Amino acid sequence: MRVWVFFVGLLFFLVGIAFGQETGVVEKRLTELLKEEYGRTGIYVKLDGTPAQLKHAAGIRSVNLHKVPDVSGKGLAIVEFKAEDGSVRTSYVAFKVFETRKIYYAKRAMTKGSLVAPEDVESKETSVSQSELIYPKDLEALIGKALKKDVAAGTVLTNGMVDSPQVIRKGEMVTIIGENRTLSVRAKGKAEEPGRVGDRIRVRNLSSGGEVFGTVAVGRIVSVDF
């Protein structure tokens, strides 16, 4: 009886090793494909479940992308493999892409509207599966930005939590600059709307009394095309 149990256990152990090896082959090939496709080195792939027929594959023949990863890192591959009976079959396999990257955290509790300074942030390397658009690409992408809500110490900071600060308040005096290829005109104005750098706002020319729309720039400047 003990011998029989031993051999059954050994069989399951060997099957598990074989399955793990085939899974590893698929994950490795997908990782290489995605690194080549996106030109990035800090990524790796884990299968998101494995079809039953692939668990008994005698060997992996090819791995190709069927659906590129979405913003959550989920994608679909098509795997060609040799079955136990010697036939060649294909199967769709779901996978998820992870990336080792630097994530930024709040070192202290901060309130809505606070401007992020270098001393407010700490970072560490971690594996994430979400789109790179969710996280700041570097510290410079956070510094000087205004928080859109209160955050507790230890909160992971994402791009959606910060915004460019308002540089012009409603009612503030501004400089209106109008430029074309041959002429540049400056005038004093009053902001009729608040704005961040890059926003288009309405301003009143104090000399003419007329209102125009312009683009907010650094230094309380509103640039108008004419």
Protein structure class? alpha+beta
Share in β-strands:
35-45%
Total DSSP helices = 2
Mean pLDDT: 81
Give the C-alpha Rg: 29 Å
Number of strands: 14
Main beta sheet, described?
Answer: 5 strands, antiparallel
Q: What fraction, in percent, of the residue positions are helical? A: 10-25%
Describe this structure in words.
The structure is a single chain. The protein has 226 residues and is α+β, with helices and mostly antiparallel strands. The chain has three domains: 2-99, no CATH class; 102-123 and 136-163, Type Iii Antifreeze Protein Isoform Hplc 12; 166-225, SH3 type barrels. The chain is built from two helices and 14 strands, in the order H-E-H-E-E-E-E-E-E-E-E-E-E-E-E-E. It has helices at residues 2-38, 52-55; strands at residues 43-47, 59-67, 74-82, 88-106, 121-128, 146-147, 162-163, 166-168, 173-179, 184-191, 195-196, 200-205, 211-217, 221-225. Strands 1, 2, 3, 4 and 5 form a five-stranded antiparallel beta sheet that branches. It has a five-stranded mixed beta barrel with strand order 9-10-12-13-14. Strands 6-7 form a two-stranded antiparallel ribbon. The radius of gyration is 29 Å and the shape is elongated.
